[in-house]
Input
Amino acid sequence: MSSRPEHVNPPEIFYGEDEAAKYRKSSRMIAVQAQMSQRAIELLMLPQGEPALLLDIGAGTGLSGSELTEEGHTWIGVDISRAMLEQAVDRGVEGDLAEADIGHGLFFRPGTFDGAISVSVLQWLCHIYKNEHVPKRRLRKFFQSLFNCLSPGARAVFQFYPETPAQIELIVAAAMECGFSGGLVVDYPNSKKAKKYFLCLSAGVSAYKPEALGTGPRNAGEGVKYTEMKRREARTKKRRGIKGTREWIDRKKTSQRNRGLEVRRDSKYTGRRRRRAFG
Amino acid sequence: MRLLTHNLMTCNVGACQTAGTNYPLRIVAEEMQQSEREFSPAFVARMLARLDWSGITAAAEDLSFEGIPAEMPEGAADDDEFLRKLHSLLLEMEVVTGSLVCPHCERKYPIDKTIVNMVLREDEV
Ligand SMILES: C[S@@+](CC[C@H](N)C(=O)[O-])C[C@H]1O[C@@H](n2cnc3c(N)ncnc32)[C@H](O)[C@@H]1O
Output
């Protein structure tokens, strides 16, 4: 069995009553959600002492939202799981809740929110649960609608669990294409357990460079602190080629990479018939 | 669903988004509740610029609330009493059961247990 719930079931099934109950009962899960939410809020770098209107994307049982309330903010939460949201209602959270698939795009008027947080959600958009699902398109639809409903210069911080570097690339590229600036913050990059990814976006070109934790000398090494997103070259539309040619293979691989799949690297042997080693 | 949220949301059906005729959603309330909430004048004042007043009057009409001015009064941001009333309207009133209906395509979004269901079918996106 896969250790990644995204591989097993769509979110509205995985986050059913049983999973929702864990968010009520497991003090460990509650603590982890709270801690990651606090960090996400810190990375939002909102002006001190101003009560803001925030969006919680994948609000679930409202543990992340409660941290927003704690900070004196008002929030609206969206989530695709009815069971999780009902749990939030039963807990009596302060936020207002809507059941929605973020891959269909958000539905708020332009300039509605002062910021957004999202805890452990984004990786769910990289998968296909219905024939109509094209992850790249869903991500784009989502980021475009988010960009529109944020007030100019507002920020959004996503803690997420990327499965592969290609998945990070897919997500970051979609955000960029929708006009966001910002980058990836990796906290405690050298610790297997504490390592956490935060995608920090700004709806505008404000200087926004949050700093990662745990990248000091003792942790040095791969220490990716903050990677600014690079503009991607606009890709031109390509025609489908003849199956099996190098061109066709390259295009197919690109498309698979775009969907965040693990694909063999390109080499000079790509698409070539291999010689039998022993006669 | 509270009226602040209602004021900020639109019909998400693709065709309605494109046409821009997706606001305000009509409110059909079967059950409402009022719950007290901490009043922050600073927050309500901050929301003034974001509110669409036509959405407020439309909501008031759907719910048969009286005494809502046809336009946002001058100097609203400094009028504590007005802000308190608005706070109560936007953040304390809540639709528990009912639905929201798009004025354009008539799409119904059910509300149950205060949660509004905005999930679309794939062919509505
Ligand atoms: C790890 S939980 C987040 C829990 C939440 N932060 C809390 O405090 O309870 C991830 C959530 O993302 C939601 N989710 C996953 N895919 C989604 C989608 N496409 N649209 C909306 N929500 C989604 C799931 O339903 C689930 O509640």
Summary: Chain B has a mean pLDDT of 95. Chain B touches chain A through 30 residues (CB under 8 Å). The radius of gyration of chain B is 15 Å.
